[in-house]
Design a protein that fits this description.
The protein contains eight helices and no strands. The protein has helices at residues 19-43, 49-76, 89-122, 129-152, 161-194, 205-233, 246-292, 296-303. Residues 275-284 have a biased composition (Low complexity).
Length: 304
């Protein structure tokens, strides 16, 4: 349930006026979803475990939306020009790969929990979904761990120590939290292979406790990310700018087009000035001809 934590400014979470607000909403929704996920696994320790599954489904759905929003925001930062990814490895392996991998992992976890919920509600007609659910509950956290590792591989060229401390305060809880989910899922699938359980019993106590501790670390990482976003929006942190990246190439391309546009406008202005001058001279000539010409009748009257 990790998410992207980038210090680079090549991101676009919404329209220019609402970009800061959209990024606040993104970070706030992540913290909210982490807290909801923690509450869902805590509810699994109670007698009414079905309500816990519903809460977990809601949390995973919000996590999926947040990760997709991260992906769209970073693609919008480069005008969705995917060919620029080959010139920026960090954009490919961090800003693009991390939210994509984590969104897929969240989707697999969502399907796994949904299959268990359907098995619990509908009965034995969904018996075949249980095996797929256990595999998805392992595959999802593995993708979260892979995303966490990619998320930690950010290059700092000229960032100050404050930025790096805040980044690590987000990376380390995400990495440890996703690792706990993976360990819990592997232990759970090994335990279920030696016993015959169905429905809610497929989520063992071991997996539940590992998930509780993992969700707690993700809440800590989400709060750290919220603080980092707040400080970046207030201008207290110097954002990272990597030379030679896709965002810089896009800026150079835009700046290269501006002189051409200005030159074209300069070429058009003399032509327009000449046409306006010719039109003015023509109008002045017609006016002078009208004022200097005297009718023949007035001339005869003047002579008499």
């Amino acid at each position: 349930m990790v998410k992207l934590a980038s210090a680079r400014e090549s991101r676009m979470y919404g329209p220019w006026r609402d970009r800061n607000r959209s990024e606040y909403i993104n970070a706030g929704l992540y913290v909210f979803s982490a807290i909801v996920l923690l509450g869902g696994f805590l509810a699994e320790l109670s007698r009414d475990r079905t309500s816990g599954l519903v809460i977990i489904l809601i949390a995973l759905a919000i996590i999926l939306v947040v990760n997709v929003h991260d992906l769209v925001a970073h693609l919008a930062g480069i005008d969705c020009r995917l060919p620029l990814i080959e010139f920026d490895l960090q954009l490919a392996f961090v800003e693009f790969a991390v939210p994509l991998v984590q969104a897929v992992g969240s989707f697999l976890m969502l399907l796994g929990v949904l299959f268990l919920f359907l098995r619990e509600e509908k009965g034995y007609g969904y018996f075949k979904l249980e095996k797929h659910a256990l595999k998805m509950l392992v595959a999802g956290p593995v993708l979260w761990l892979l995303g966490s590792i990619h998320n930690s591989c950010q290059v700092y060229e000229s960032a100050d120590g404050h930025v790096q401390v805040l980044q690590q305060s987000v990376h380390i809880p995400f990495l440890m939290g996703s690792l706990l989910f993976v360990v819990g899922a592997i232990i759970n699938i090994r335990d279920q292979s030696t016993m015959v359980h169905h429905g809610m019993d497929l989520l063992g106590r071991t997996f539940t406790w590992f998930s509780i501790f993992g969700s707690s670390l993700l809440v800590i990482g989400g709060l750290g990310n919220l603080v980092k976003v707040f400080k970046m929006q207030k201008g207290e942190l110097r954002l990272e700018k990597l030379r030679g990246g896709a965002h810089e190439l896009l800026i150079q391309e835009r700046e290269a087009q501006v002189p051409l546009i200005l030159e074209g406008q300069r070429r058009r202005q003399p032509r327009q000035a000449e046409e306006a001058l010719a039109a003015t001279m023509t109008a002045a000539g017609r006016t002078s001809s009208k004022t200097t010409t005297t009718p023949y009748k007035d001339v005869l009257v003047g002579q008499s």
